[in-house]
User: Fold these one by one.
Assistant:
Number 1:
Amino acid sequence: MSVVEKETLDRRSASANESRADGDESSRPDISVFLPVLNEEPNLRPLHAKMRAALAELGLSAEVIYVDDGSTDRSLEVLREIAASDPRVRVISLRRNYGQTAAMSAGIDAARGRVLVPMDADLQNDPADIKRLLAKLDEGYDVVSGWRKDRQDKMVTRRIPSMIANRLISWIGGVPLHDYGCSLKAYRRDSIKDVRLYGEMHRFIPIYASWVGARVTEIPVEHHARTMGKSKYGLSRTVKVVFDLVTIKFMASYQTKPIYVFGTFGLAAFLISFFAGLLAVYWKLIHRADFVQTPLPVLTVVMFAVGVQFFLMGLLAEMLVRTYHESQAKPIYAVRERIGFEDK
């Protein structure tokens, strides 16, 4: 067998494996709704009743995925009963409580639909708004984010911190949205198929999607006050959001060129070392001050060593980035459409 024939067979095999992994395109449901669940036992049955009504109004094929994130009440038992009564329902039970981001990631991985719709399971999001999100997608957008314009939450502990965080995220991420914290969104499958979530990153999915050229917009959605169960959100999440924003900013600006940020700090350290050394020599020659009488020589040596470390860290980061992209044959660009090509 020639090398060309072998490469052709390898490509065909890889394509077949990918097709089997993704499933038959014709068998995909139109939409996949997935909901992280944590101790929402009293809300699940009324929520699913609303979900069934909303999906019936759409007239589209759909699946509903509930991700139980280590609930300690009877949420999982209720979900089993719902799945037994509705063939569109699938349930994922995580071994323990991993957090909302992990639950969202599990939902994305399991979803088969052409459009993915995450939402909360606490009855504060309204399934009837799914129809409006899909209508906005039909206008040519890839991501439609819900905006809880008339938010039914406490002003001091929830709404004010949220407004501050949303403005900060919009400024740093470059995608101006009023409400990153609203779970109710709609994504075209292609816009988030390569998204990998960590930490509290689920709220930044629209930013990730925009990095690969997705067209992002938002619409106001209904928001209801919580009547049953207990909220899992608090002010502690604000600190986590700030840390994640630092990561987002770094990834947005330097993900494929880390030497720029490390090199900048290294250059700054070298400049401090250079001027500290000049000043030490000046004091030695002009004022007859011994080197041991000032901290400048120590500062010169320390900052020079710091500068070398930053440059070496930058080179190491560059090697890691290139290994990441080249070992996986992962491109540094994303194609929206191919016209005039034989391959689909």
Note: The domain at 27-254 is CATH 3.90.550.10 (Spore Coat Polysaccharide Biosynthesis Protein SpsA; Chain A).
Number 2:
Amino acid sequence: MTHLKGKDILHGNQFSKKDIEAIIKTASNIEKELKKKDALTLLKGKILATLFFEPSTRTRLSFETAIQRLGGGVISLGAVESSSVAKGETLTDTVRTVSQYADVIVIRHPRTGSAKEAADAVSIPVINAGDGTGQHPTQALLDIYTIYKELGPLKNLVVSMVGDLKNGRTVHALVEILSLFQTRLYFVSPSNLRMPEEITSHLKEKGIGIVETRDMMEGALASDVLYMTRIQKERFTDLSEYEKLKGSYIINKEFLSKLKKRVSILHPLPRVDEITPEVDIYPGAAYFRQVRNGVFVRMALLALVLGKIP
């Protein structure tokens, strides 16, 4: 895994199967170490800069937790309106400036392709925390780590992805990683929120079995994992269209009672109405365990890109 030293983390398709297995192993080792002590010292003296141009709770806080539990420090852009961005500074100039203060940058930005633009502008590693409707690779990595912890070896899996698959950067990244393990995929969505055709075509070229359907129960009955996503209000220019589609897919107690076996339920969060609170006590409800796993995976990534393999 030393080849990740100094590398950018931008896209779900940049990883090999061996990469994923090594990241899982590193995250697992870190998780075990944290059971013995509160923090490690692998990144003592290192600084992480978080540049978030879109709202975030889990991604931002987990990265900030990750660097501090590794012994490093964090600096943040803060509110965009209180930074030089409000004066018209370009993204390139912002990241060039911040790279003078930090050893690694994590960026979230509303424009697809922005993370690569940032990475091309600086010599330190840049990690994509979401670029518009493009990619969210670290979410995909914590998702695959969660699936591994919930279900064991990543073999012969069937995964249903449900909701806004058109705009969902988390699913765009995750399918790339799942395809490395020959996972069968159900894409469950309204017809106008289907997985982008360039993604489905690419998966089919790789020989991945895909079923596209509007029926969540069809996918759930065949699957080991239900990966729920919210219908993203902020991606709609016509709010009347959003109102028609919100609530298209809801997992509740009644839905679970119709399943013939336990399934693992994942969600990148935040949820709106697609998983009711009564589901939280279901043994397969893994979404808050998924949140915690994000810290271990992001600790592993930060250590790896900075060349400090535990």
Note: The first strand starts at residue 47 and ends at 52.
